[in-house]
Amino acid sequence: MEEKKVMLSGIKPSGDLTLGSYLGAIKHWKERADEFDCYYFMADLHAITVRQNPADLRRRTLEQLAQYIACGLDPEKNTLFIQSHVHEHAELGWVLNCYAMFGELSRMTQFKDKSAKNADNINGGLFTYPSLMAADILLYQPDYVPVGEDQKQHVELTRDIANRFNHIYGDVFKVPEPYIPKVGARIMSLANPEAKMSKSENDDPGRVTLMDKPEDIMRLFKRAITDCDACVRYDPENKKGISNLMTIYSCATGRTFAQIETEFAGQGYGSFKTAVGESVVELLRPIREEATRLIADKAYLQDVCRAGAQKAEYIAQKTLRKVYKKVGFVAK
Ligand code: TYM
Questions:
Q1: Which atom of ligand 1 is nearest to the CA of 43?
Q2: What's the confidence (pLDDT) of residue 202?
Q3: Cα–Cα distance, 274 to 219 (Å, whole number)
């Protein structure tokens, strides 16, 4: 039997999952479970590069697992786990630090952004974050890494690190491809269409979370920043707010931009914003309901992540053993 291709991705539990995390990433994970061998995790090691409240981090990590399952990731078909439960991530992360260059790490957009936002806490972890992310990925030898646009640079650096390592030691790592959706790879804040919708900054008044109530979602969409042109037309250069809403509507309903333009021709923005809000309410309703049910069942969530870590560890250990041997560490 031909071996299945491998897909892997992760999300930091640094805030509540947003519509952006869903449309840019999770939505594209769930359809692949039969075709691929899939690994998805909660990147808690990454979350602490920015100061977290420990109780919130613990709660959000399990809630994120519940939300993964509620989004359609069946734990029987997908390996779902918590990053810190598989210690090989931190270990390979260290090794890969020694193969990632200072200049490369300094050029990462996320490092520059986060350093600007957390000027009082520009820690070493924030800087070496991409080596840990490379370890997360390379441990499982995936073919594809499904992420939103903002993580593409990190996946590209992972490829560079893998190629560098392979060049020195032979074919140790599979060099993965980023898998970026054509529509929805960069959902913008409803309050500021110039900025990405972000889960980590709880102060973004334009973020929709997976657990938001219908009335809150409708309020956010009604207040969404647009322009004064009153024409529903896709033009991401000049009409950022409307183009963002069209992208969201397209993802939620499956309609093309041309169909959306026809549907709302001659109508003001009011009815369009209401329609987008309603489509998102319906998209998220089953997810919120199922996640709420699962969050109440901590024992089940613990079982899922324990079983997931066991499966993940088996593969991670194999890769790490090979790496340790190649670089010259003495076997235990
Ligand atoms: P994170 O936690 O910031 O985001 C998780 C995933 O959601 C996507 N995303 C978005 N897509 C579209 N529009 C948005 N507004 C939006 N916001 C977030 C992100 O692109 C990402 O795919 N470093 C990663 C986590 C990580 C990881 C990994 C990912 C750690 N190790 C290994 C893949 C493989 C991060 O911070 O993503």
A1: 30
A2: 63
A3: 9
SS3 of the chain: the string is: CCCCEEEEEEECCCCCCEHHHHHHHHHHHHCCCCCEEEEEEECHHHHCCCCCCHHHHHHHHHHHHHHHHHCCCCCCCEEEEEHHHCCHHHHHHHHHHCCCCHHHHHCCHHHHHHHHHCCCCCCHHHHHHHHHHHHHHHCCCCCEEECCHHHHHHHHHHHHHHHHHHHHHCCCCCCCEEECCCCCCCCECCCCCCCECCCCCCCCCCCCECCCCHHHHHHHHHCCCCCCCCCCCCCCCCCHHHHHHHHHHHHHHCCCHHHHHHHCCCCCHHHHHHHHHHHHHHHHHHHHHHHHHHHCCHHHHHHHHHHHHHHHHHHHHHHHHHHHHHHCCCCC
185 lines ligand 1 (CB under 6 A): yes
pLDDT of residue 197: 95
Residue 147 Cβ inside 6 Å of ligand 1? The answer reads: yes
As annotated, the active-site residues are: 114, 196, 199
Q: What is the pLDDT of residues 144-162, one digit of tens each?
A: 999 999 999 999 999 999 9
Q: What is the mean pLDDT of each run of 10 residues along the chain (332 residues)?
A: 89 96 94 92 97 96 98 97 98 98 97 92 96 98 96 98 98 97 95 91 83 97 94 96 98 97 94 98 98 98 98 98 98 91
Report the pLDDT value the prediction gives residue 185, as an integer from 0 to 100.
Answer: 95
Hey, whose CA ends up nearest to atom 4 of ligand 1? 11
75, two tokens: 């734990």
Of 18, 15, 35, nearest to 27 by C-alpha is 18
**Number of CB atoms found within 10 A of residue 222's CB:** 14
Query: What is the model's pLDDT at position 203?
Result: 66
Phi (first) and psi of residue 72, to 5 degrees: 110, 5
Q: How far is the CA of 264 from the centre of ligand 1 (A)?
A: 32
